[in-house]
Amino acid sequence: MTRFHFTIHATEGKARTGTIRMRRGEIRTPAFMPVGTAATVKAMKPESVRATGADIILGNTYHLMLRPGAERVAKLGGLHRFMNWPRPILTDSGGYQVMSLSDLRKITEEGVTFASHLDGSRHLLSPERSMEIQRLLGSDIVMAFDECPKADQPREVIAASMALSMRWARRSRAAFDAGGEQAESAALFGIQQGALDEGLRRESADALTQIGFDGYAIGGLAVGEGQEAMLATLDFAPQQLPGDRPRYLMGVGKPDDIVGAVERGVDMFDCVLPTRSGRNGQAFTWGGPLNLRNARFAEDQGPLDPRCSCPTCGSYSRAYLHHLIKSGEILGAMLLTEHNLSFYQQLMQGLRDAIGTGRLAGFAADFRRDYFAR
Amino acid sequence: MTRFHFTIHATEGKARTGTIRMRRGEIRTPAFMPVGTAATVKAMKPESVRATGADIILGNTYHLMLRPGAERVAKLGGLHRFMNWPRPILTDSGGYQVMSLSDLRKITEEGVTFASHLDGSRHLLSPERSMEIQRLLGSDIVMAFDECPKADQPREVIAASMALSMRWARRSRAAFDAGGEQAESAALFGIQQGALDEGLRRESADALTQIGFDGYAIGGLAVGEGQEAMLATLDFAPQQLPGDRPRYLMGVGKPDDIVGAVERGVDMFDCVLPTRSGRNGQAFTWGGPLNLRNARFAEDQGPLDPRCSCPTCGSYSRAYLHHLIKSGEILGAMLLTEHNLSFYQQLMQGLRDAIGTGRLAGFAADFRRDYFAR
Lengths: 374, 374
Prior knowledge:
With 374 residues, chain A is α/β, with parallel strands linked by helices.
């Protein structure tokens, strides 16, 4: 049984394309992971998520621990069986959401105590509890528990937070390794912090590499710093992490963010943008984003994107999608989400093919020309 | 080209099973028509609606005339192309919804003027305008324009309303016949009124039969009179209508309503119950309705209905559906709607098979025993 094996097939500049092999399936990189927050990729059946080309989805520890509860998911046979997704699942550690969603947080060396945004109940998340929850869920790729500070804080705050995350990374590693069966079948990723600071990012990368993980995430970006600052950080951060391990940029992003990050050596992504935007009437296309609420689409008989091969573009007009979104119809959310996830996967396939054949520079230039043409 | 042809294959008592042949496809009777109010069967892709076994769906003239507008639908190639449903569509006349949904109604001999519930704009619905709208939509089965009064009013109010509906039925027939191409490809149904009164129902049936329609609907039921009064009316109303034409009971109903109506000679049904209930967390099963919000399902690993062959029952537990409904997830509405529509179609198939083999009495008895067992 292959627990976790990453092969790089080709490189172009800093960019790489490869395959991660795990017992529940292969993950082609660069990979985009649709977000399945509450044990569902919103408005999509799992077989439709797979049909878009997704090899792996993400589940949120914070949401699942509160509802339906990790122990309950375990009792029901684990997250894969519960939600009918037999392929790999990456679960985050809960560290990010507990900071952005919960109330009455208190951070100590031990972990974070907080009140649920659903019912106010008190909970503790610590490296040990996060590993336990991710084990109960049956996660394939487990994320170390970290603190994700806002990027605009003083260097000493960022440094202290990063140091805490590195101590938690060590505790996560120990707790994961003590997890019995899961330690033999799942993978554990560490998370680099340090905001926009090259020196702190280096310290964090070194600490993580010394502990040793199956893959390395770049955390603390896409938190409001803007694309320019993010890409400037990605000019150095990925290279500080081991080259033979997957690099995962958490919570990113817009299609152009992804292209820029792949050029800088990132292998994995997750983001709510294609699903959330789809529910709000926004479609991503090779010609840039479209807001389907706009009245100019009311009699537009064309597909969302003439270059797209998804079921939505094959069977429905912009006029119909405009009508559904204006009418608040669930089918509008379903069809736009399916298109957006398909578009993201077509983008990833384009990036993989381009790197595989040494055409990434041209692919990225063509992408930007068309995407920003309007 | 077959415009409209109804063949009865078998009868048992008053019940019949048969086939309606139209240019866009066959309709097996007794038939249940899912409701696609605003050019979508809510929370379902059209191919999934078809996969449940539906031969025909219903569209609402009132909703479609207001949004996106009948002229716009025509410009976009008609309702079938707009919503990607190539099979037969029955459209109601708008008469029922204009009474139940709009504001500031004024009824005259000419028709009904009203204010849109969406934006307050003023509109007229008359027999002629209703026929025009249904022609613009491209309807396969067009309903005559009628007034649907509440059943609990004095006999003279019901009688006057019925007489008005019969005058409107004659105008509907004339306007439909003047509609050119549609008159040669679509069918027109008249609507019997008269509430619970056998004499008025007889007068209405005679008036409609004299005008002549492809099929005959029983209107003015399922408007709050209760199942007992409805079935008592169905003890005589269907038999007053021509036996060689399909009989359509509008807006009905619960599974047990449908079984009772089929036993009394009804051939076609439509109802929002399976779709609306699905979005609200209610599932119909052979063992009776289930409310998935109920905490007793939180750890129930069984399918919604062990006798059901739908995709939802094949892949998801009651516990997962409970979680989705509690979490307000769109996928919960999708999966429950798909199950409910599948259940309704399995019920119709069961009724058709039973009538075809002379087992309806036993089928209905078994159905009631299991459905009301709890």
